[in-house]
Amino acid sequence: MGKRLQVLFYLFLLIAMEIKAEEIVVFKSALDFEQEEPKATFEVTPNDTPYQADWIQPGAAGTQKAFEVKTKFTREKDVIAFRFSLPAESEAEGADLLHFWARGTDATAKVEVMLVDKQGAMYKRKVMLENTWKEYLTPLDTFINTASSAKLKPEALAQIRFCFWRGFVPMGQHSLALDEIGFARSESGDWEGKSQKEVIPYCGRMPELPPSADFTIESLDLFRGRWQFGTLLGTNLHYSEKIPLAAAWQPTEPRSEIKFGYLAAAPTRKMAYARVFPEPLVVAGKEAEGYFSIKEPFLTGVIHLKVEPKADAKMLCQAELLLKELGSAHDYLKSLFLVISTVNGEQILPLQLINPEADTRGIRVIPSRIGGSFEEGEKVAFDVIGHNLTAEAMQDEIAFEVTDYSTGQMIQEGKWELALDGDAVERLTFQLPWQKKGLFILRCQLVKSGQEAQTRFCYLPKQDLANLEPRDAMFGINVFWQQVPWYAYQPEIMGRAGIKWMRPWLNYENTWPVIEPNKGEYNWNYLDETFQQLAQAKQAYQFMFMWAPGWAAIKGGNYVAPEHYADWAEHVKKVVTRYQEQVQYWEVWNEPNLNGSWSPSSPDVAENVRVYIEHLKEAYKAVKGVDANAKVIAISAGGGPLPYTKEFARQGGLNYCDAISLHIYMPYPERGNYWAVLQEIKEVLAAHNAGHKEVWINELGTGAYDLYPDYAREVGYSEMQQANWNVRQAIMDLAFGYRSLWFCSYDPRNSEDKRQWTWDSGIGIYYLGYQPKLAYPAIAGLTYQLEGAKFVSKLTLGAQTWGMVFEKDGEAIICFWTEEGTENFELPLEEQEITLFDMFGNKRCLNAQGLTFLATESPQYIRGVKLDYLRYAIGLEKLIKLSAEKQELNPGEKVSFKLDLSAIDLPVEGKLSIEVPQGWQSPSEVAFNEKQLSFQVQAAAGELPNSAPKVRAVIQLRGDTLGLERNVYISKVIPLEIAFPEAKLRDFTQRAYDDSKWENVTKPAERDRFFSAYDGYGWYRKLVFIPESWRGKQIKLNLGLIDDIDETFVNGKKVGATYQWDEKREYSLPLEVVAYGAENLIAVRVYDYQAGGGIYSGPLSLSCGEERINLEGEWRFAVEAFQRQRGINAFKSLEDKFTH
């Protein structure tokens, strides 16, 4: 770059702000790769981690060369770090940004940058990378010194260090390329130089804010999708543009003084405070402007105010906020305001956020309550914020329409009169008469000028839980927060949905480092604040003891070092002593079986469990020593928790707890055998004489982000599916008497940034900025029906339809849904009035006799059924047995079934209907008057099935022979499995096999719907031409990511296998396997043992040197076998079936 000054444009990623071309000046490069090749010093961990460092050409932005480091990580904890010494004269004085060009890969998505000064002080920050060259400008004041509060001085820097690692990303090729490392000064830096920095406490009258007004929440909502996440979980956010604000007023005197201030809110007034900048702007008939620097834990930035008189004698203040960082703290920015002083007194005006896309004119519409949820009987209201509208628009009408989000139907429209006073920034409230429950979209448009705005809102059934003790509730939520403490609004929002349990996680108010950061120094403020809010909302708190502070942690980890067990016990004792009146359940750690929560984690499960039980023992004794009636929750295992749970029970851990908790995330819960998993938990406890202990499924959930279609397509889950699965999983939990705590209240990551796409980045039931998803009103519908209910029985209502019967206040509640699609069914109900509720609580009153119900994937509820009669019908179903002589068949094989009604002690007469998969053979309808009969079905021959085969027998019993007024319909289902012989499996690997009847699928794509529907084996096949010119050369087959296990064959020969879902598949082809100048058959056998599966991420290719053949696109797919037994241990390799 030499000594020239350069004006630059860039895209900021993760931790910097985007600065437009005219806003930044870049100084001379501290490391000029054009003139010299500075030497890098490497530090690798472990010390045998391989790497290759080279100078590459060309460089990033027209330069001749750049520096690149490559490695192929093979272990999760591999780390590569290297550092450059900076020149003694680096021309950094006055800089406020670090400037560099960088390029990562799909695998190398993040780098840690560390700046080291001449005294050895280290300041570090993580930066997200892309796989193309990008220019980065990172604010120097966002680099953190973890050892002290010392401020970074750019002119005193001596070294710059870059570090990258494998972590949880797939093994394979990682690289980091760098060019033009130097310093820069931004417009923000110029603003900083002329801004006021001193602030003083403000004790005057606070700005009058409506319930919906909250600067932080409004800005999170308004700019959602444009926030840059400074950390993976968004504890630090950055915005790349200036944030516009405005206020307008009618002056009462020609001269006024204006002070700028901000209100830092906490959930209660106890910790709230306001600050003002003491030097006023003096306004006397002409413009005035000023700059103000805010440096708080929750916000770092500079604001520019400009006050000017308008033609109508009003005063208008327009502001721009250059936001360096929106942080995460227990207090947060509630409002920016002006104190306008004249000889006649003071006027306090909040600065209103302005939609930057409205071209400085327009409207915003938001619910009049944060969270946008209203209960039955409440008035639904919205605030409309208008700014700088034209004279015509100020007397305009607002046309609105409301759409039901679950159906897409427009259900109401109308107009509101809009009357704004001149150029004022005004917030007007409008009411909307409402009755229907669910999630809705309100769209508004100014009739004359055309400006538009929209928002979401929910209408919920009125919960009747006044007599329910919160700690007796069965449903709860894991609370998440980024910039606004969860206990500010979430207890009230979740309480409206009938959610009573709150479970914090991560580094929140409950963790040991927050409570006792230094030995003997305690901070109870945040917990006291939490319980004050929970008491008002009548919520229960599941306290989690979590993390060890640095002074008590094991070296290089986050759990307690053995020499600090006494400190650990004392910590538990102090917490329980202080909060025993507010807390009954005390959880010991979160996911001790996973490295993120329990580090360093031993690869030996038994050893991991042993150390965890040592922690648990100390905590258990401490809790019981203070409160003998308190309950201790253990395990909280995630990521396939049953093996850990079994080992925990084997080592005697159940002696030191009153309850266990597990984390089970399962889309399509019925097909994932969720019911069987719950049953296995029950059996594990019973086997250790612990069947009386409580079970909490205290993490369950599914991600959804409809607001960004690309993410929705990638993950394959919608808001409707999230709502359905969250509710269905919780109903099954309740049937076993287990508590359910959904994960989580709020989206933890940015699903509009492709680099943060994970299955759970959109797992909240609220979007960033407190916009509700469908899961929120669906959960409200569930708690309205089943909180306080007891399980009676499971019902089989159809081949796809699940049914559960609960009892509440002496009344039966039947809930039902399908695994997929829709299905009609009947219930053995007498003539009676019943009420049918949809998932959200909308109801219809019906006469039950002869009624056919339509089941969908969304749970519905029937109330008003006579419980005694229903118990009889359920009991009758249990007396009928259907069995098969075998459940594993070969194609074309016949199997006999036996229907046994001999347990019914009354005469029986009726009809039997048999439903079988397409292509199978079975008898037609059979009449019977005996208590035992047999029938036979025959499986289809030859081809692979496309769904898990089942045989369903529908028994219609005549009611008059049983003393009933109407016939009774009972359904019995037996799942089957088709096992193909070895010869058939061998055929699938051969090019000659005819796969024309297989399904066409596009790869890569989201995990296949086939594997979402079952667990088991499937095959992918593709023909590809390999040119003669590749003969004798090394050919690599890249298959991207496959969930869970693959065995891959080329022309009938096995070329590789991988046993981990998140590892890249790269196989070298033996020379003798390849047919050159001809088509080759690639066959991939996949085994999926939970949730979705298949080839889900690319790239897919064959490569030979620099040449590449794209394999993405159409593949053939078919099912091999359906697996009733889940788990990686159920996988059976073809190794022994093929000779290579």
What does this structure look like?
It is a single chain. The chain has 16 helices and 70 strands. The chain is mainly β and 1140 residues long. α7 crosses α8. Mean pLDDT is 84; it is low at 1-22, 1124-1129 and 1135-1140.
Indicate the radius of gyration in whole angstroms.
33 Å
SS class: mainly beta
Relative strand content: 35-45%
Task: Give helix % range.
Answer: 10-25%
Report the end-to-end length measured between terminal Cα atoms: 58 Å
Sheet with most strands: strand arrangement: 35-34-33-41-40-39-38-37-36
User: Any idea what the shape is?
Assistant: globular
The poorly predicted ranges are: 1-22, 1124-1129, 1135-1140
Work out the helix count: 16
**Assembly level:** single chain
Query: Main β-sheet: number of strands, strand sense, barrel status?
Result: 9 strands, parallel
Mean pLDDT: 84
Total E-strand runs: 70
Features:
single chain, 1140 residues, mainly beta, 9-stranded parallel sheet, 6-stranded antiparallel sheet, 16 helices, disordered N terminus, disordered C terminus
